[in-house]
Each structure stands twice: as C-alpha cells, then as structure tokens.
Specification:
The structure is a single chain. By secondary structure, this protein is of the alpha+beta class. Helices cover 25% and strands 33% of the residues. Strand 4 (66-70) and strand 5 (76-81) form a beta hairpin. The longest helix has 16 residues, at 245-260. Helix 4 (226-236) packs across helix 5. The chain has a seven-stranded mixed β-sheet, with helices on one face. It has a five-stranded mixed beta barrel with strand order 8-9-13-12-11, surrounded by four helices. The chain contains six helices and 15 strands.
C-alpha cells in the first residue's frame, strides 16, 4: 500500500470458464498495468462446486442469501443465491484469505455483482495486514485525514458534502474507510468500493481524527474515552460474523485505533454551521 489501496494490486486471471467479467470504471481507477507485488489475488477459474463443508455463517433471510462453508482442506466456499433459490456466485477462498477464485457466476451481470462481492471479501482479507474497513466517509482537509462514521441514513453524506462545498475538503471515499497502520502511522485509503456514493479517489492520507456522527437538535462535540470509542468502532467495522482469527483481529484494530486516534462524538443539525463547529473541535484536538 505505498500510497495506494491494495485494491490497485490485484491481478485478475481467467482459466477454463465462460464467465464474463468487465471491470467497472471504479475498479479501473485503481488499476496499474505494471507488475507489482500483490498482497491478494482475484482469479476466475474452473473449480468443483462444493457446499458439503461445515457451514460457518449464512442465511436465506439476507437480502442476498449468502453462505460460507469451511472445507476439510482449510479452504472456504463463499456462495450466494438469487431469488427462488437459484444459484448466484461461488468463490473459493484459500485458508490464508489471500486468494479468491470466482468459479461460478449465474447473475448475468458481466461481473458487476462479483466485483461488488469482492469488496466484502477484501474487507475481511485486509484484517490479516494490520488493516480494517469501517463504514463511513474518508475526507482529506488541510492535510488531515478525517473519518466520519455513522449508521446508514444518519446524514454522513450530507454533512461531508458540506465540507467539500464550504471547505474544499477532498472525499477519498464516500462510504468505506480503509485504514492501515504502516511504520507506526495510521493511514486512510481510497478504494473502488464506495456504496451508492460514487465517490472514490486512489489516494491515502494520515488519519488525524475519527468522528462519530449523530443527529441532534444542536451542534455539540465531545471527545470519547478509549473504551467508548472502541465500542463505536466495533459498530462500524466490516468484521466477519463467524468467530475466529479474522474476527479477533477486527476487534483488535478497533481497540488500537481508539487508543491512538482521537474519536469525537458529534451531534449535529443538517446545517452549514455544523461544519464550523466540527472544524473548531478537530483543530483543538489535533493541534
């Protein structure tokens, strides 16, 4: 991740299948034609379908029914289904979570849904690399990396776009915050998966503070203690729902971020003055 998301370093190969994949524009924004060392590999190859392993997680009740099986070999199968129980996509994941092979895609979306699904797999895989993905917006303002986290529908998009319009802030990602600690410094990265925001830039910035955004009747800011900050991050992290090493690393990331990065609890109204209130608080905390 030398200044760029690891998403820009994932070679894609196709072997022995008729799966059609067209990398979407967001993915091409992170594409590098030159050979570089890859932390992860995404492949398209023929594999034997197998859902006979132990079911770790999944449900028919999800909007997209999804299931994760662990095979006797230690590898995993990530399967989705479409309406009526029809097959969707099938990924084979190796035991180290660094190689992902798409071996079935019946969605007829030319790889669009497969690419979106890779965003979830990537969010889990980076946990092996002192990194995590949080649900929120990554902003760069005056050399500071500011993460604005909130539940869907709270107003983080409205608030951060006011920062862009009023303060000329740069939005690196409008929905997901890729965070990684490198050489003792926490960085936030742009990545090609950005929800419905459509906002992504292939760039990194040192993280100066994290903002937990809430709706309020007035604009108020307070700094959270480490314990409370950890709990807020746990609510926003893309963490596996099944127990194991990856889940533990996700919680470790939350604890470490909360101990090392200021976390502000921000209650605000959807008005321009809220930007000024938060900016003053950030400058006080970050010096």
């Amino acid at each position: 991740m030398k200044g760029r998301s690891t998403a820009s370093r994932q070679p894609l190969h196709k072997n022995g299948t008729d799966i059609r994949v067209e990398i979407p524009f967001a993915g091409m924004a992170f594409y590098h034609p030159e050979e570089r060392p890859a932390a992860f590999r995404f492949l398209i190859e023929a594999q034997e379908a197998d859902d006979s392993g132990a079911l770790l997680w999944g449900s028919e009740e999800f909007a997209v029914p999804t299931f994760l099986y662990r095979r006797d070999s230690g590898a995993f199968d990530w399967l989705t289904r479409q309406s009526g129980g029809r097959p969707g996509m099938s990924f084979r994941i190796n035991s180290d979570w660094d190689t992902f092979t798409l071996y079935q895609d019946h969605t007829g979306t030319k790889g669009e849904r497969a690419f979106r699904e890779c965003g979830f797999l990537f969010s889990y895989a980076v946990l092996q690399h002192h990194a995590c993905v949080l649900h929120g917006v990554v902003m760069e303002y005056d050399g500071m990396g500011i993460l604005v986290l909130a539940a869907a529908g709270t107003g983080k998009t409205t608030h951060t776009r006011m920062w862009r319009d009023r303060k000329n802030a740069l939005i690196l990602n409008g929905d997901r915050c890729l965070c990684r600690k490198k050489d003792g410094v926490w960085y936030a990265y742009g990545m090609p998966w950005s929800g419905s925001s459509g906002e992504y830039i292939n760039r990194r910035v040192p993280i100066s503070c994290i903002v937990n955004l809430n709706r309020g009747t007035e604009n108020t800011v307070s700094r959270l203690p480490v314990f409370d900050g950890t709990l807020r991050l746990m609510q926003r992290i893309f963490a596996p729902m099944w127990p194991g090493v990856l889940q533990n690393r996700a919680f470790d990331c939350c604890e470490e971020l909360a101990a090392e990065i200021p976390i502000l609890d921000f209650y605000c109204k959807p008005e321009p003055q809220s930007v000024d209130t938060l900016e003053r608080a950030i400058r006080r905390v970050c010096g």
